[in-house]
Design a protein that fits this description.
9 strands; alpha/beta; 310 residues; 11 helices
């Protein structure tokens, strides 16, 4: 077992064993220490949030937002580590979805749904809630080092989710997702950051970035309804709302790549609207825009290493 795997295992075991108030206080204190230390992740979050809120927000208010963002990110990890120990009843009570009846109708009709998510709030809680509700759910996870990925998958599959590796699986994940959608599954996909250097360029908060083509392409290929989620925290629960279904271009209106670009831009616009409403809960501690350097400054960024996409 390597150090990274050991850290995940310790987190899953130790955090679940502690009383929640004790664990929450420790994670909050850790977030505040990380904010004061002002490491690379904190600096990138600050640069990304400045793009979201614009240049008019005073520095003191931005700094408070960055602190709250680090606390929200710590809360995500706290709740992710505790999630496998929760009962079905606790999972259902700990997450709220505005628009649940829309997804319920899609699943009941057997047409499935694609849901484009931001790295915000608690997407693991959202997936667990979908599974606990009794809906089939399949998603894709980035390949992690051996050992860590297997535990990561086991953790989520124990909650009732089907997890496909972004690459290296027996079948391309896109093909499997097409099958699952046609069988009526919910397919949530993190959509606000491309990991492949092959993503679609979009306008996002006034700058250019890349987002994965997968959500748009899946909806176009299968005809499944496509939604954009906004995700955030309330004091007592992780929350989400969905917008859509987004309109899809007529098949004869343009070539496939142009239609994918148009739909991906609509996804970007929907994600931006949700992030702007709850910027403190956007966990984007990585480079986001093409003109950002490693620390989040405005210098050209190299394309990220290819890790696979759908």
């Amino acid at each position: 077992m390597n150090l990274t795997e050991a850290g995940f295992v310790a987190g899953w075991r130790l955090v679940r064993a502690l009383p929640r108030p004790v664990a929450a206080a420790a994670f909050r204190a850790g977030a505040d220490r990380a904010h004061r230390k002002d490491g690379g992740g904190t600096r990138r979050l600050r640069a990304n949030l400045r793009r979201v809120v614009g240049p008019e927000l005073p520095e003191a208010e931005l700094e408070a937002l960055v602190r709250d963002g680090m606390r929200s990110y710590a809360r995500y990890w706290l709740e992710a580590f505790r999630l496998p120990g929760l009962s079905r009843r606790e999972i259902l009570a700990g997450f709220r979805l505005d628009g649940a009846e829309i997804l319920a109708a899609d699943v009941a009709a057997g047409r499935g749904a694609v849901v484009a998510l931001p790295h915000a709030g608690n997407w693991d809680a959202a997936g667990a809630w979908v599974a606990a509700t009794g809906w089939p759910i399949t998603t894709v996870a980035e390949r992690l080092p051996d050992g860590v990925f297997e535990r990561f998958v086991a953790f989520r599959e124990a909650l009732g989710m089907e997890i496909l590796p972004s690459h290296g699986g027996p079948r391309p994940p896109f093909d499997v997702l097409v099958d699952r959608l046609r069988a009526g599954a919910v397919v949530p996909l993190l959509a606000d950051r491309d990991l492949s250097a092959r993503g679609v360029e979009v306008d996002f908060f006034g700058g250019r970035t890349r987002m994965p083509a997968g959500p748009a392409l899946l909806a176009i290929r299968t005809g499944a309804p496509l939604y954009v989620a906004s995700m955030w925290y309330e004091p007592d629960a992780a929350c989400a709302s969905i917008e859509g279904p987004l309109p899809l271009p007529d098949p004869d209106s343009a070539p496939l790549d142009a239609r994918v670009r148009a739909v991906t831009q609509r996804i970007a616009d929907g994600l931006a609207a949700g992030i702007a409403r709850h910027p403190q809960d956007w966990h984007m501690l990585q480079r986001m825009w093409l003109d950002q350097g490693p620390g989040g400054t405005s210098s050209p960024a190299q394309p990220p290493a290819t890790t696979g996409t759908v």
